[in-house]
Amino acid sequence: MLYKSKLLNWQASRAQSGACRLVERKTSMPAGARSCGRLVQIARAFTLAFLIGLCALPATAQQVVKVGGYDFPPFVDKTAGSASLTFDLIAALNAFQKKYVFEFVHTSSKRRFSHFDEKRFDLILFEALDWGWLGREIEATNVIMHGGTVYVTRMEKYKDQRYFDDLKGKTIWGILGYHYGFANFNSDYEFLKKHFNAHMITSQDGLIEAAVAGRADISVVVREYLQIYLLRHPDVQQKILVSTKFDAVNSYTILARKGNRPDVAELNKILSEMESAGILKKLWGRYNLK
Question: How confident is the model at residue 59, as a pLDDT?
Fold first, then answer.
């Protein structure tokens, strides 16, 4: 601040002396002295205003990037008091670089496609192209995490891993709008009900609880969330049988609108630098993920 003050006074003094010399050259009349004082005041005021304006100019404005997300624990968890990996990654991205400001926009598993088409958001985290995105102006970054969905059923003496080999005749519970391997990633509710006796709800907790209670013969649960749930509810571990095979293996990426910034090349660069700095490993570790 001291430096800026000296700079302003120096600039004003130069303006004053310049204005006086100009007036002295133009007139020798006594009134010129009075005019000089007037001009000095005007020149000084304009100089101060100009320099203050320069000092007040902000740095290059950051571009706001809208990031879509829907209830998909542990990535986005709408349960009160729960952490969400998507929110934490957005915060890490904002802290790591200053070119963009990433902001979360809530959508739903079913409406995320139409909301993207309406340009409500341009990025979506922990997503895959084959979850209904093919054919849109969107592209994927490198894989940032591997995971998947598994089958869960109530523990019974007669049940073992072979119970998950044949789904016929069993009630299967899942999340509305999700894409499951057993249905060849067809998320249409009517199709699922007709061909797989499926019941769709909106809560991962509800899926696990339905399996424990026996309301669902099989619930298809996101493995990454199941791990967290069992840490919170260790007593449930003895009440359920979890498949060793996956319903689907998920390769999580960031999807970005084509033609927008940041594009996937820039996102890959940012993510690679964050990984090299150990930021991503630390972030995944908070959720017991790899």
Answer: 52
138 and 265 housed in the same domain: yes
Gap between the Cα atoms of 249 and 150, Å rounded: 9
Q: Residue 14: which pLDDT band, with cuts at 50, 70 and 90? A: very low
Residue 13: pLDDT above 70?
Answer: no
Give yes or no: residues 22 and 72 share one domain.
no
How would you write the chain as a 3-class SS string? CHHHHHHHHHHHHHHHHHHHHHHHHHCCCCHHHHHHHHHHHHHHHHHHHHHHHHHHCCCCCCEEEEEEECCECCCECCCCCCCCHHHHHHHHHHHHCCCEEEEEEECCCCCHHHHHHCCCCCEEEEECCCCCCCCCCEEECCCCEEEEEEEEEECCCCCCHHHHCCCCCCCEEEECCCCCHHHCCCCCHHHHHHHHCEEEECCHHHHHHHHHHCCCCEEEEEHHHHHHHHHHCHHHHHHEEEEEEEEEEEEEEEEEECCCCCCHHHHHHHHHHHHHCCHHHHHHHCCCCC
Can you read off the two tokens belonging to residue 98? 């200053």
Average pLDDT of the residues in 145-169:
96
Q: Quick one: pLDDT at residue 37? A: 53
Whether the ω angle into residue 74 lies within 30 degrees of 0, i.e. cis, is: yes
User: What is the rounded distance in angstroms from the CA atom of residue 95 to the CA atom of residue 51?
Assistant: 31
Can you give the residue range of the structural domain that contains 239?
148-250
In a shared domain, residues 109 and 130? yes
Closest CA to 271 of 263, 259, 262, 280: 280
In a domain, 290, yes or no: no
Residue 86 lies in a domain: yes
Which CATH number characterizes residue 226's domain?
3.40.190.10
